[in-house]
């Protein structure tokens, strides 16, 4: 009996899976607040009589501050514990989202959308830091795939719901209710999340399992007041002068370009260029997100399986990304058919590829200098999410009232650049030395 009790107490607990669930739900809310504007845009643009150029500017407003705040956000992530920083950001961006529902004009909407983007900026660097602290390397691909899938599950399930809500009530309630949900979740995160060594229910065996597998269980020690590192220009130089890091930066820009197309222009494309109503477009828009969900879950499983089978970390992490990016070119098929069903098929294949490539944060964990995880993640997200500015604006000025084809040509060209970046710039996957 004593021996059995000893075995039970030395068996690793699984609290890290609860942390993965927290990250997943937070990502669902994060992307719900990114996509709510695209759902409301057809009705909103009609009410305010917006041109396609104005729509592009409004859809891009999130990206201006989201990108600009990546480096300050990464700096904060290296200094403020995730429990405090994530809860604060959730409250602030949710309040800005809520006020979008009661704003009375185009300028007010842009200002509030800028605030949403700025306050969401630290989100993914926080996710990456939490995953790096809580999970060994051999589990990290699946975990990153799992919480990243939250963006697609949330959008797949919530896009029809929010479209229905807009039809039954008005577009204003799309923002009000999503804002309220975010504020409630901020309180839950604050009360539940802790670092590995501080979390109740975690035994020493789980801590040892994480640490021996490459998890940085003590990464938060640098955030204590007496040991806070100062931002140095030499640190910025490190994350800006390494070829490997530039490979993932450029690749992320190309990957997120496709994501931002679906987050901004896709519902408008279905309503204004394919003649669907709001409820029908909400259902159709959800299908590519479901495909992307399947892609991202399959990607994490395949990537970790390749690691388990003895393939190099570089092959296991890069191959799904390259294959997924290449599949995005299927989007061009929409230019050669009048069938709405075929358009959805092409879009679903393209977005499946985007999901299959969405384990890019695993390369940040594997390549970033250990002391500069937050700063590297911030730079990665900054350059990657410049697409959140470029994609809505470029498409807004490329398309006309009757022709959307140039948008798909642009997206295919960007994807090719992403493939070349991972093939020729990233090289062997190993942690960058300072």
UniProtKB/TrEMBL annotation:
This entry's Gene Ontology molecular function terms read: transmembrane transporter activity
Q: Which Pfam families match?
A: MFS_1
Q: Where is each Major facilitator superfamily (MFS) profile domain found?
A: 19-430
**UniProt-annotated location(s):** Cell membrane
**What start and end residues bound the annotated signal peptide?**
none
GO cellular component terms, A-Z? plasma membrane
Q: How does it sit in the membrane?
A: Multi-pass membrane protein
Parts of the chain that traverse the membrane: 57-77, 171-192, 246-266, 286-307, 319-336, 342-367, 379-399, 405-425
Q: What's the domain of life for this entry? A: Bacteria
Q: Per the record's keyword annotation, is Kinase included, yes or no?
A: no
SUPFAM superfamilies, alphabetized? MFS general substrate transporter
Q: Which UniProt keywords apply?
A: Membrane, Transmembrane, Transmembrane helix
Query: For this UniProt entry, what is the primary localization, expressed as one broad class?
Result: membrane
Q: Does the keyword Nucleotidyltransferase apply?
A: no
What protein name does the entry list? Answer: MFS transporter
Biological source species? Brevibacterium aurantiacum
Q: What is the lineage of its organism?
A: Bacteria, Bacillati, Actinomycetota, Actinomycetes, Micrococcales
């Amino acid at each position: 009996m004593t021996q059995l009790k000893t075995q039970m107490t030395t068996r690793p607990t699984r609290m890290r899976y609860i942390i993965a669930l927290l990250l997943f739900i937070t990502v669902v809310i994060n992307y719900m607040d990114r996509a709510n504007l695209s759902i409301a845009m057809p009705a909103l643009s009609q009410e305010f009589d917006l041109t396609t150029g104005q729509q592009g500017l409004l859809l891009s407003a999130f990206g201006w501050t989201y990108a600009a705040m990546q480096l300050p956000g990464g700096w904060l992530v290296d200094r403020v514990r995730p429990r405090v920083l994530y809860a604060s950001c959730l409250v602030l961006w949710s309040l800005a989202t809520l006020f979008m529902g009661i704003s009375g004009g185009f300028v007010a909407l842009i200002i509030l959308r800028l605030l949403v983007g700025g306050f969401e900026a630290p989100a993914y660097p926080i996710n990456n830091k939490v995953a790096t602290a809580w999970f060994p390397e051999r589990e990290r691909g699946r975990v990153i795939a799992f919480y990243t899938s939250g963006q697609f599950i949330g959008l797949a399930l919530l896009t029809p719901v929010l479209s229905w809500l807009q039809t039954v009530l008005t577009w204003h309630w799309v923002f009000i209710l999503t804002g309220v949900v975010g504020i409630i979740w901020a309180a839950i995160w604050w009360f539940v999340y802790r670092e590995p060594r501080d979390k109740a229910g975690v035994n020493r065996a789980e801590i040892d399992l994480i640490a021996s597998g490459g998890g940085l269980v003590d990464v938060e020690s640098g955030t204590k007041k007496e040991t806070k590192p100062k931002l140095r220009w030499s640190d910025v130089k490190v994350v800006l002068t390494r070829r490997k890091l530039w490979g993932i930066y450029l690749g992320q820009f190309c990957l997120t370009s496709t994501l931002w197309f679906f987050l901004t222009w896709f519902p408008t494309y279905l309503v204004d260029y394919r003649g669907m109503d709001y409820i029908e477009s909400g259902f159709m828009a959800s299908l590519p997100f479901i495909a992307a969900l399947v892609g991202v879950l399959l990607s994490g499983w395949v990537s970790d399986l390749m690691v388990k089978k003895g393939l190099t970390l570089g092959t296991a992490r890069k191959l799904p990304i390259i294959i997924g990016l290449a599949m995005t070119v299927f989007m061009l098929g929409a230019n050669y058919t009048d069938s709405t069903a075929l358009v959805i098929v092409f879009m679903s294949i393209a977005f499946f590829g985007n999901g299959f490539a969405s384990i890019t944060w695993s390369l940040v964990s594997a390549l970033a200098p250990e002391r500069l995880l937050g700063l590297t993640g911030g730079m990665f997200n900054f350059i990657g999410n410049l697409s959140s500015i470029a994609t809505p604006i470029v498409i807004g000025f490329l398309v006309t009232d009757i022709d959307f084809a140039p948008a798909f040509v642009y997206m295919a060209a960007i994807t090719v650049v992403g493939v070349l970046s991972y093939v020729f710039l990233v090289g062997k996957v190993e942690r960058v030395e300072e």
